[in-house]
Amino acid sequence: MERTLVLLKPDAVQRRLAGELISRFERKGLTIVGLKMLQASKDLAEKHYSVHAARPFYQSLISFLTSGPTVAIALEGREAVAAVRGLMGLTDGVKSPPGTIRGDYAISIQNNLVHGSDSVDNAKAEIELWFKPEELTSWNPTDSSWVAG
Ligand code: UDP
Ligand code: MG
Q1: How far apart are CA 116 and CA 141, in angstroms?
Q2: Ligand nearest to the CA of 56
Q3: Residue 46 lies in domain
Q4: Which residue puts its alpha carbon closest to atom 13 of ligand 1?
Q5: What is the three-class DSSP state of 29?
Q6: Which residue among 39, 89, 107, 134 is least crowded, i.e. fewest CB within 10 A of its CB?
Q7: Ligand 1 touching residue 122 (CB < 6 A)
Q8: H or E segment to which residue 26 belongs
Q9: Domain count within the chain
Q10: Is 92 in the pocket of ligand 1 (CB under 6 A)?
Q11: Ligand that lies nearest to the alpha carbon of residue 122, given by its number in the listed order
C-alpha cells in the first residue's frame, strides 16, 4: 500500500474547508494514517518547498504557508500519490477542472488549498518531514475488502 502527504494549507483552514476537504479524501477510499494541525515554522516551510527555492514565487509561498494553521494528513491506499493528485486537480485553480478540489474551490495559483506529494519518493520524505514516527498509525479499515477489492 502506498502512502502520500496531503497538506490543507492555511487558506483551506481560514476558509473553514478543512472538514469538507478531508471528507473528499475519505470518500475516495483513502485511509487516514496520520492527521494533525500545526502552524508551520519558516524552517519547515522552506524544507517542504526547497525544490522551488529559486522560483520567483518562493518567498510569497513561504509566507503563505507559515501564515496560519495547516492540517497535515498522511493517507494510504492503492496508488495514493496519483489518487490524491487526481482529486486535487491542476496547480492553477482557474485551469483546474470542476470536480477537482482546486477546480471547485480555488481561483488563485498560490492559494490553491491543498498540497499532495508528486512521487512515491517525495511522499516518503515529506511524511518524514511533517510527522514523527509515533504520530503515524498502521491499521486495516473494516471496509477494506469493499474499497480495495
Ligand atoms: N505556486 C505559486 N505560483 C506559481 C506556481 C506555484 O504560488 O506560479 C505555489 C502553489 O501554492 C503551488 C506551490 O507553489 O501549490 C507548489 O508548486 P507546484 O508547482 O509544486 O504545484 P502543485 O504540485 O502544488 O500543484
Ligand atoms: Mg508540487
Answers
A1: 22
A2: 1
A3: 2-138
A4: 110
A5: coil
A6: 134
A7: no
A8: helix 18-28
A9: 1
A10: no
A11: 2
Given 3, 9, 48, 115, the catalytic residue: 115
The C-alpha cell 502527504 sits at 5
Cell 491543498 sits at which residue?
114
Render each residue's pLDDT in the chain as its tens digit; 149 residues.
899 999 999 999 999 999 999 999 999 999 999 999 999 999 999 999 999 999 999 999 999 999 999 999 999 999 999 999 999 999 999 999 999 999 999 999 999 999 999 999 999 999 999 999 999 999 999 999 999 87
Strand partners, 73: 6, 35
99: domain CATH number is: 3.30.70.141
Please choose from 50, 66, 87, 110 the residue to mutate so as to test ligand 1's pocket, defined by most ligand atoms within 8 A of CB.
110
- Is position 143 within any domain? no
pTM, two decimals, is 0.98
